[in-house]
């Protein structure tokens, strides 16, 4: 189980742009559901650059920097 999805753990990642702690904005898939409803799922899978086999047993989370608006996807071990 992913510790972030279950609320066991908070993870903060420094923004590569400005160094501010990025906030977890939920699972990547949910983010795209909200913001890119017009994009086909297969395209979204390729877009983040992670091959399918790397995702096994991992949960992609989207982190957003509230300071500069940068977004990064991190694979969290389940
Ligand atoms: Zn998760
Ligand atoms: Zn930033």
Which terms summarize this structure?
alpha+beta; globular; binds zinc ion; 2 helices; four-stranded antiparallel sheet
What this model shows, in words?
- The protein has one domain.
- It has a 4-stranded antiparallel beta sheet.
- The longest helix is centred in the middle third of the chain and has 8 residues, at 28-35.
- It is built from 2 helices and 4 strands, in the order ββααββ.
- Strand 3 (58-64) and strand 4 form a beta hairpin.
- It has 78 residues and is of the alpha+beta class.
- The N and C termini lie close together (4 Å).
Quick description:
This protein has 78 residues and is an alpha+beta fold. Helix content is 19%, strand content 29%. The protein has helices at residues 28-35, 41-47, and strands spanning 13-14, 21-27, 58-64, 71-77.
| Class from helix and strand fractions | alpha+beta
Task: Give the SSE string.
Answer: EEHHEE
Q: How many structural domains can be distinguished in the coordinates?
A: 1
Low-confidence runs of at least 5 consecutive residues: none
End-to-end gap: 4 Å
- The largest sheet has its strands arranged as 1-2-3-4
Q: What fraction strand? A: 25-35%
User: In oligomeric terms, what are we looking at?
Assistant: single chain
Q: How many H/I helices? A: 2
Rg estimate, integer Å? 13 Å
Average pLDDT number? 75
Q: How much helix is in the residues?
A: 10-25%
Major sheet details:
4 strands, antiparallel
Total strand count, please? 4
């Amino acid at each position: 189980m992913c510790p972030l999805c279950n609320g066991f753990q908070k993870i903060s990642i420094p923004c590569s742009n400005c160094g501010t702690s990025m906030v977890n904005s939920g699972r990547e898939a949910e983010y795209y559901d909200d913001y890119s409803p017009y994009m086909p799922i297969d395209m979204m899978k390729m877009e983040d650059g992670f091959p399918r086999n790397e995702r096994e047993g991992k949960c992609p989370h989207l982190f957003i920097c509230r300071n500069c608006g940068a977004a990064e996807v991190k694979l969290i071990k389940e």
